[in-house]
Structures are given as C-alpha cells and as structure tokens.
Amino acid sequence: MINMNELYEASMNRVVDYIQANLNEELSLKQLSEVACYSKFHFNRIFSDYMGESVYQYIKRLRLEKSAALLQGNLNVSITDVALVCGFENPSSFAKSFKNHFKMTATEWRNKSAGYSVYESTPVQIERDGFSINRGSPVWTYHLVNAIWQVAIEDIRPLTFAYLRKTGPYHDDEILYGRLYTRLLRWAAARELINEETIEWHIYHDDPNITEDKNLRVMVGIPVMNSVAPSGSVGISKISGGKFAVCRFLLKRDEFAGAWSWIFSEWLINSGYEWDDRESFERCHGKKIINGNHFFDVDICIPVKAV
C-alpha cells in the first residue's frame, strides 16, 4: 500500500535539498513544483502544510539567515557581495528585507558581530609550542584542565549520504538522534548498506544563534555509494567536500553546544581561517564510559578557507 505521508516527505526532501543547493539562484514556483513532481497549486499547498511557511517565505528566510552568517563570519566581504551571493536581486531589496527580519541594518549586524563574539565559552590559551604541522596540515593543541583538544585542517572528499531530516529543536536531545539513527540503520541494513565501520553523521545547515529553534534543520546520515536511490522518508544528498577544521571531543550530553561555541569563538577567530559557506557536521564514533561517566566520541567539522 502506498504511504502518502512518505510520498509527501520524499518530495519535500527533494525540494528542500534543491533549494539548499541553489539558494543563490532564481527559484520559481514552477521550477520547484517540477522538482516535487506536483502541479504548482498542489505543491504550494503541500509545502505550506509540511514546512509551516510558504515557499516564498521559506526561501527568503534562508537567504536572510545565510546572509547574517556570512556578515558575521566573513568580515572582508562587502555587504553588496553578500546580498548578491545570497540570491537577492539588488542591495536595496536586501537592505529592506534584512532590517525587517533582524530589526537592525546589515551594517549594524556586522558591527555587532565584529565587536564581540556571539558565542560564549571559557577562554582557553594555546601554548607557544601548541602549533605544529602534521603530514603537511596545521594542528593546534589546546591544554585544558581535564583534557587536551587538537584542531586539525582536514581535506574531506565529497561524499553521498543517506539521511533522515528533522526540523525543530534538537539541542541535547539524545532520544531524538537515537530514534532517527535507528530508523536509518534499519533502512540501510535491509539494503546491505552498513557494516561494522559505518559511523553516524549529523549534518547542520543553520546557526542556532541566528535561526529560531523551531526552524533548525539537522540531518542524521550515513555515507553510501553514489548509486543508492532515495526511498520513502530517507533522502539522498551530498557533502561538497573541501577543507574543514576538525576537532575530536569526548562530550557529555549537555556539552555539545559549548564545544561548538569554543571552536568558533576560541579557535576560528585566531586561526588565520574564516568560516566557509558549506555544510558543518559531526562524525560520531560511538559512546565511551570513563570513570562511570558516559561520553560521546565525536568529531566536530566546520568548513573553512584562508582569510
């Protein structure tokens, strides 16, 4: 029997992935309805019901949130260039939309971001001998009271992954991630797509300091071959690859936000790199028990480029 909910979810996965990949291009209702394989009228209604906002509102919000992230993460790029790369037709329409959404001008937003970090973390000093080169790549070593953290620049190849998407709050929600991963593993096991080396990936598209909790998007995924096709609620997407700053952590359930904040507020601003407009993600290596405490063994990976 055909599951209509899964059909709708599959079509929305295709559309959301398409919008994300082409956010700086012109996106028409006709074009997106063809991606969804529905008439324009039917697609517009389904999208609004499924996403909680119209296609136009959704695209405009994503473009504004992307521009806000670029303004605070790439201070050397002009506001006009940010507007154009985010898909706005001209600087004046961007300026008006930005102020309506964020209640301040793009210049005020950038100045605020340049004046202080939006991330809060405990300052950690790098030792003089804490910078090194390993196999041609830079490595930063930070000595904390109870741990040693290392950030390395890693060239990650492009890859295809199967995923389940969740929109909404996800902070510290171990049950949510576990439920999504279990569903994904059952789907993958039936197709002989997993083995003992398969690890869980969490792919993020939004900055929690910019996007409202109800609109945050996360995908729980596993790498698969390019030939694997989407099925029902399981979508197929790609990570573009490139240079990433990678730090491996042992984290308790409530320490993830602090680790993400640290890599941006302590490492990135002093690294000689800046945030690049690609996917950020976690590579999850499982759980460990140390002295009776439960930890998650995870790589946090953020896309970077030279300043």
UniProtKB/TrEMBL annotation:
Signal peptide (UniProt feature, chain positions): none
Keyword set, alphabetical order: DNA-binding, Transcription, Transcription regulation
Record domain HTH araC/xylS-type: where: 13-112
MF-aspect GO terms: DNA-binding transcription factor activity; sequence-specific DNA binding
InterPro entries according to UniProt: AraC_E-bd, GyrI-like, Homeodomain-like_sf, HTH_AraC, HTH_AraC-typ_CS, Reg_factor_effector_dom_sf, SmbC-like
Entry keyword Membrane: no
Protein name, as recorded: HTH araC/xylS-type domain-containing protein
